[in-house]
Amino acid sequence: MHVIPGVFDYVRNPLPIMPKKRNRRRLILVIVVIPLITLLVFTYLFLSAEEPPVESVNTSQTAISKAKEAEAGTYAPALLEKAETMHQQALDEWQKQNELVSFNRNFGYMRKLAGEAAETADMAAERAVYVKDSLHTSLKNKLENVKHKIDHFESYYAHLPLKNTTRRNFTTAKMRYTESGEAFARTAYHDVGINLDVAGKLISKSVQEAHNYLSDYFEDLPKWKRWSDETIKWSQKNRSTAIIVDKFAHKTYVYRSGKLLKEYDSEMGPNWIGTKNHRGDKATPEGKYHVTVKKAGRQTKYYKALLINYPNDEDKARYQKNVRNGNIPKVGIGNLIEIHGDGGKGINWTDGCVALTNKEMDELYDLVRVGTPVTIVGSLRSLKEINGM
Fold this sequence. Notes:
This protein is of the alpha+beta class. It has helices at about 5-10, 20-45, 55-70, 70-75, 75-100, 110-155, 165-185, 190-215, 220-240, 315-325, 360-365, 385; strands at about 240-245, 250-255, 260-265, 285-295, 305-310, 340, 355, 375.
């Protein structure tokens, strides 16, 4: 039987068409499946990429803000600066990681920096609060101490004719103390410390200078007490009136038969500390004198007056010695020292006299006569009795 060539071969061997189908399948696999798999892989990598620790950074920033509110910049500056540096390093690390492919980023170091920044900021805030509390207590005690010295100075020294430098130091100290108190009230403790240190040094210096000044003056205390005792004994012995003026106490005492009869507030010359040395020094003399003239009406411009015998022999001898030594100008010793009226002004205003109110002058005028002793002393009490020093 004759078989047609070609047809038989085709039926027996269909291989020529098989490679085309396989290639098509392969093409479909390449075009569809592989990209899909790649997409799935990248999707997985993208979804599994680490998220930046935004909350950690926000926490550290919040902690730093709270530290600043607690004034850590003033009271814990090193800790605050350290916290801010670590916070900035965390931000720099964040930027560095953002420049990488998302699935290749690692925010572990950034998270560590942000956490340490927050912890350090918390420490700064706590430190600031502690320091402020400590300063509050210590500065409060210092304020009270300086105020005590200022009050002491005002009570015992402010009315004295002190040196200009001493008074200026006191004025500056008081001003700095006031500024310190205002700063303390608004918790600006740094300002308190600076002003308070200055105030403390100046008021201590003023007190010491004033005390030294008075210590020298009070060396005559034994003499003053002796004069006073002699005057009171004279009053007792002669059953008569005697006057004692205590300049430091600003008092005039009237004794009758050795007993205290009257006591008057008195005003003197502006430079009343120390005895009178020469004309025009506006100082009230110290010594044992007596009334030489009783003045009233047109005899005096001060209502009524009791003229005393200043200068006495001791005053004249002291004046001559001081002139020879060049301690004072040769302008005359001065005179016309009185106990007179028109007082009650509340200040030391006379040219060296002792001033009483007119009502008190009426009483005193009637109690004395020409020859009545008038003893003027610096003080009848010791400096320690007066100011505790």
